[in-house]
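Bumping with the actual sequence this time:
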Amino acid sequence: MCPYCQAENADRALVCASCSRDIAVPATLIAERDDLLRKRDQLRDELARARDEIETIMRRRTSR
């Protein structure tokens, strides 16, 4: 699918057959995206653990 005009294109097409825009994504960008998605997921997990820890601490404080 073309991200610009939403036309369907052949697999591995470099240019959209409909709007003639460049639709190829370099492998390095795909690898970088995958790495960033992995890091994002790790940060989300870390944030969830930190929130849980803060919640536990707050509960201990209020129970005293």
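The tokens above came from a reply further down the thread. The first helix runs from residue 27 to 63.
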